[in-house]
Amino acid sequence: MSEDEILELIERISPHAKEYVANSIKNVEVLYSLNSLDNKGVFIKVDNEDCCIFYTYFLNEDNIEDVLELIKLKANEYISENITKEVCFNTWGNNSKIIKLVRNLGFKSDMEGYHLEYQDENLPQLTNCNLVERNFDNSKLKEFIDLFDTAYYQMNLDNGWQINSYALNEKQFQQKLDTLNKHNQICSFWLSGELVGAYIIQENYITDLVVRPRYQNHGYGTYILAHCIRTMSSNKSMDKIRLRIAKSNSGAKKLYERNGFAEIASFAEHTYVC
């Protein structure tokens, strides 16, 4: 299997995975590859100085018992060396057999989710809305902390992630918002003096789009998303507007898909726990 073919399969896990593998190509070891009429897949190891990451993608998991045994062998061979660097195992989100094996080997799930890409040829229309657009203001930091912590509360709870992380890391969050504001990468939306929602963009990714829970399902999310897409599209050097979303956040995924986004990759990221 050629380098380009391998990168094409890794991109189906995530565009970031493809970029990482491409930039580390001299440290890539192809442990298994398959390219037949009824299946294609790859199992590789990227062993850099600071970490080692295994990647797997298989179009289907029929008759891959030999692959599962190889994954078990190679992973155990590596993690039994008591190395000090971080060891990760990232796989295509649809490879349930591999995911189950990886977790049984001691790898902890970091995140499962999707990459979506805006694929509508037309820009969304901004309908009449009573939201007022503003940039970040340090005097409103508490409102921003409350918005992000409440908007992400259920998702963090569902995934066993830390809740109230923005309140617990107030200073760092303020510094991040200040930097984003300087580069016009954050926009907030207010109604009668109350912060309803916001979005954050970095490069060609929507990294955050949040709406206060009591204002959800009222069309505000759709309006904020349309505003975000139009803002990003005004940058002529930018194409392929994308976002990454947790698998558990199915409601948000449906919102994006209703508004021109389509799934381009699916991932399950893991880190080995000694």
Share in helix: 25-40%
Largest sheet: 11 strands, mixed
Radius of gyration: 21 Å
* Overall number of strands: 11
Q: Low-confidence stretches at least 5 residues in length (pLDDT < 50)?
A: none
Question: How do the strands of the widest beta sheet line up side by side?
Answer: 1-2-3-4-11-5-10-9-8-7-6
Helix count, DSSP H or I runs of 4 or more residues:
10
Percentage beta strand: 25-35%
Task: Sum up the overall morphology in one term.
Answer: globular
Order of helices and strands: HHEEEHEHEEHHHHEEEHEHE
- Derived structural class: alpha+beta
Give the end-to-end Cα distance, rounded to a whole number of Å. Answer: 34 Å
Quick check: average pLDDT?
94
What does this 3D model show about the protein?
- The protein has 274 residues and is an alpha+beta fold.
- The protein has 10 helices and 11 strands.
- The protein has helices spanning 3-11, 15-23, 65-79, 96-104, 141-151, 153-159, 165-168, 170-182, 220-233, 250-258; strands spanning 28-35, 40-47, 51-58, 86-92, 107-118, 132-134, 186-191, 194-202, 205-211, 242-246, 261-272.
- An 11-stranded mixed beta sheet has the order 1-2-3-4-11-5-10-9-8-7-6, with helices on both faces.
- Helix 9 (220-233) links the parallel strand 9 (205-211) and strand 10.
- Helix 1 (3-11) runs antiparallel to helix 2.
- The model has no long low-confidence stretch (mean pLDDT 94).
